Amino acid sequence: MKIIQVTDVHLGRLREIRYGANLNERLDHCIDHINQRHSDATLCIFTGDLTDDGEADSYADLKAALS
After folding, report:
1. Is residue 14 predicted with pLDDT exceeding 80?
2. pLDDT reported for residue 19
3. What is the pLDDT of residue 6?
4. For residue 43, what pLDDT is reported?
5. CA distance 41 to 35
6. Rg over CA atoms, the chain
């Protein structure tokens, strides 16, 4: 059984640069990589700090990215 864990994405607002990177763009690349190379995974779990600021808008952006 293959389980993938993605942790501490610290997502901010769309197009916002945090920690020297566009974290939304990095998350998109991460999801694309998982879909392309690990489509046989049984489960993918997101843990840790999902957003950087805990704001509702950041969670809405995360939900959109994972849809």
Report:
1. no
2. 81
3. 97
4. 97
5. 9
6. 12
Tokens for 36? 């392309």
User: CA-based diameter of the chain, in Å?
Assistant: 36
Q: How far apart are CA 5 and CA 3, in angstroms?
A: 7
Judged by DSSP in three states, 57 sits in helix
Backbone angles phi, psi at 3, to 5 degrees: -120, 135
- The ranges assigned to domains in the chain are 12-40+54-67
Q: Model pTM?
A: 0.80
Per DSSP, the three-state class of 37 is helix
Q: What is the spatial distance between Cα 44 and Cα 32, in angstroms, rounded to a whole number?
A: 13
| pLDDT above 80 for 24 | yes
The letter for the amino acid at 34 is I
Residues 61 and 20 sit within 8 Å (Cβ to Cβ):
no
